[in-house]
Design a protein that fits this description.
Elements (H helix, E strand, L loop, with lengths): L3 H11 L12 E5 L2 E4 L4 E4 L2 H4 L8 H11 L13 H10 L10 E5 L2 H16 L3 E5 L8 H6 L17 E4 L15 H18 L6 E6 L2 E2 L5 E2 L2 H14 L2 E5 L23 E4 L10 E5 L1 H4 L15 H16 L2 H21 L1 H4 L2 E7 L2 E6 L20 H11 L2 E2 L1 E2 L5 E4 L7 H19 L1
Helix pairs in contact: 3-10, 4-10, 7-8, 11-14, 13-14
Bound molecules: 4'-deoxy-4'-aminopyridoxal-5'-phosphate.
Protein name: Acetylornithine aminotransferase
Family: Belongs to the class-III pyridoxal-phosphate-dependent aminotransferase family.
Keywords: Aminotransferase, Pyridoxal phosphate, Transferase
Length: 445
């Protein structure tokens, strides 16, 4: 086999620059909460491949289920016949849905495809064209999903024209209203809902609006949970106008927030729920669930894809559903979440660094820490404008990597995001928190 140096040169010379990378390294093995790199380094993984390997890398039960399926049936095209694991997966998903009305599933490979399928269906069912999305939203990078994504221009800049009929509104995140971080949730929610009412009067008439698409915890846009009153408000407005409410739980689903779906925190029933990532712990699989009365309006053949609901991925997902129960994953998530929040709070209490932390927020193990920045320093009483350090989030993340832990930032704000495995041990959680605390101290020194 070629040396790591040779392979890294292949990467540098022949793998597109268009795919960004945090580090120039080769992952050679994944085990639980750790990744091994080509040079032997063992990295604590607080990214989970962006919220995917929720049960840790290569969970033995999940990997075995996939391996067994590989020896039995790899590809069973859904337009030819069902395969066993597709149906077993649906059977396993029904009882964990946040609302019993969500009873009709279709499976895909990636989050983006599922998002596109949901929008395609919403337009067809409602016979309306337009879709309302949130500023800061991330829904993917395929052509339709890219048009719905509003977190950073790099995702679509220069590839326009985008799919028309997308109308963004502000999410209840203080940045988006140019208000201080101390602004009350009620105030942010009422401002966002007011903007939605304006949008429906001035830009997209309700009779032209097919759907409102929202992440219950906005991911790329800053790791901010949607206040339950916001989702309730969206539900009321959607109901009033016959607009479908679609929740993108691609990142927040499957236990990430300490409940099976983040939707459960608000009790709001979406008309469609989009899932991916954690569903199969790394095997490419995604899905949309909605009401049977809606999907029954579709024509056979309208939805489909060669690999949609692949048998190996479905077998892995069935095993994931079993592990979620057998290993009390939600309980572990909540315990580790409490420890994580307490550790982050201790960092904030440290007088040397605390003044640089604007906010600690999140649900379960989907947690964001926002640093003060020159852009936000006008709101920061403790660190007046000239002293606000630049690029804190990326500098802290880089320092964590040097110290042996992968940590991600979010899109345009100074936010680092914690997405550790949901079955991480208490010891590894402590280790990650210690690395973070040291990294922040070193960066602000
Ligand atoms: N929606 C959300 C909320 C996501 O976080 C992502 C991926 N980060 C997507 C959609 C797109 O999923 P995929 O990358 O699998 O296409």
């Amino acid at each position: 086999a070629s040396s790591a140096e040779t392979l890294l040169k292949v990467g540098a010379d022949h793998v597109t620059k268009g795919m960004g990378r945090l580090t120039e390294a080769i992952m050679t093995k994944g085990e639980g909460s750790y990744l091994t790199l080509h040079d032997g380094r063992r990295m604590l993984d607080f990214t989970c491949g962006i919220g995917v390997t929720n049960l840790g890398h290569c969970h033995p039960k999940v990997s075995k289920a996939a391996a067994d399926q590989c020896m039995n049936l790899v590809h069973g095209q859904i337009s030819i016949a069902y395969h066993q694991k597709y149906l077993e997966l649906v059977e396993n998903l029904i009882p964990v849905m946040p609302d019993p009305s969500l009873d009709s599933f279709f499976l895909w490979n990636s989050g983006s495809e599922a998002v596109e399928a949901a929008i395609k269906m919403a337009r067809y069912i409602t016979k309306r064209q337009n879709v309302i999305v949130m500023h800061g939203a991330y829904h993917g990078r395929t052509f339709g999903a890219m048009a719905l994504t509003r977190s950073k221009t790099v995702y679509f800049d220069g590839s326009e024209p985008l799919m028309p009929g997308v109308f963004p509104m502000p999410f209840p995140y203080w940045h988006q209203h140019n208000l201080p971080p101390t602004t009350s949730e009620d105030e942010l929610v009422s401002r966002s809902l007011y903007q939605l009412e304006l949008l429906l009067q001035q830009q997209t008439a309700p009779t032209r609006t097919a759907a409102i698409l929202v992440e219950p915890v906005i991911g790329e846009g800053g790791y901010v949970p949607a206040p339950p009153s916001f989702l309730k408000g969206l539900r009321e407005i959607a109901d009033k106008h016959g607009i479908l409410l679609i929740f993108d739980e691609v990142q927040s689903g499957f236990g990430r927030t300490g409940k099976y779906f983040a939707t459960e925190y608000s009790g709001v029933r979406p008309d469609m729920l989009i899932m991916a990532k954690g569903i199969a712990n790394g095997f490419p699989l995604s899905g949309v669930v909605t009401r049977k009365e809606l999907t029954d309006q579709l024509k056979p053949g309208q939805m489909g894809g060669t690999y949609a609901g692949n048998a190996v991925a479905c077998a892995a997902a069935v095993a994931c559903a079993e592990v979620m129960k057998e290993e009390n994953i939600l309980v572990n998530t909540q315990k580790r979440s409490t420890e994580l929040f307490a550790a982050l709070e201790r960092v904030r209490q440290n007088p040397a660094v605390g003044k640089h932390i604007l906010d600690i927020r999140g649900l379960g193990l989907m947690v964001g820490v926002e640093f003060a920045s020159p852009a936000t320093s006008k709101y920061d009483v403790a660190a007046p404008s000239p002293n606000a350090p630049k690029n804190m989030a990326s500098r802290v993340a880089k320092r964590c990597i040097e110290k042996g832990m992968y940590l991600l930032t979010t899109s345009i704000y100074e936010v680092v995001r914690f997405i550790p495995p949901l079955n991480i041990s208490e010891e590894d959680m402590k280790k990650g928190c210690d690395i973070f605390a040291e990294a922040v101290e070193e960066v602000v020194k």
